[in-house]
Structures are given as structure tokens and as C-alpha cells.
Amino acid sequence: MSNTYMDGVNWNDKQIKLNVKELLEGLTISAKVGTAKNTNFKCINGFPNEQDWTALNITFSYEMTLKNKVKLEAGVSISEYLIIGVGGTLSLKRDFNLKFLPLSQTDVTFKILVCSADEEEDDKQQDKEEKERCFR
Questions:
Q1: Which of 7, 53, 71, 116 could form a disulfide with 83 if both were Cys (CB 3.0 to 4.6 A apart)?
Q2: Nearest alpha carbon to residue 41 among 109, 87, 102
Q3: Phi first, then psi: what are they for 131, rounded to 5°?
Q4: How far apart are CA 77 and CA 61, in angstroms?
Q5: Is the pTM of this model over 0.85?
Q6: Residue 85 contacts residue 105 (beta carbons within 8 Å)
Q7: Tens of pLDDT along 45-59?
């Protein structure tokens, strides 16, 4: 799934994929962690936001064919971006004030593709091309 908010994310190459056949045939769950620059927050505690945010993505994908006639592919991708800003002040009275500013942003992407499930090779290629065109 393509999401413009995730263009700058450096995902860790290691990811977890689960095939939960016992729960629902055709359902796959994957998770990955990485770092990202988040341009939606210009400043954190009065300082420019130049730090890397922690990024977590969980994707649920489901594929099935209904009565050998209709193919269904659906997916939900949830990305969470997290950072904790830390700031403090010291007064002339030697009072020290410390603050933590946790920030987060959540992006949710949905996709649903429904098409005929024709078994001929030409139709498979056409479905593949149509799918690629639809999800760019």
C-alpha cells in the first residue's frame, strides 16, 4: 500500500509476518519498525523538529475468492509515529522545571480490490495490470 506520509520512513529490514490460518484463512498480519522525519510538526518544545521519530507499522491483508467467481483483496495499514520531546528551565532561584512532551501521529490506509476470478492466463495478466494501476 502506498502512503505519501510514509515516503521518508527508513524501515528496519527485519519484519514480522504472521499467517493466522486458525483465525481466518487468507489473513496475513505483518509488523515493522523504523525511523522517520515528520514534517507535520515544525517545532517541538520551541526547537526545530530535526530528530528521527520512531515509526511502527502494522498491516492486515486479506485475500479470498468467492465461489471461483469473485476475487477479493483487502488491506488495512496502520502507521504510528512517536517522539518524546524533553525540555527544562533553570531559574535564578535554582528551581529546575523539567517537562516531557510525548507526540504521536497515526496514519491509516485502506484498500479494497474486487474483480472477477477468471482462470485464463490473459485475464490474470489483465487483473495484475489493473491492480497495479489502481494502487499507484
A1: 53
A2: 102
A3: -60, -45
A4: 8
A5: no
A6: no
A7: 666 667 788 889 999
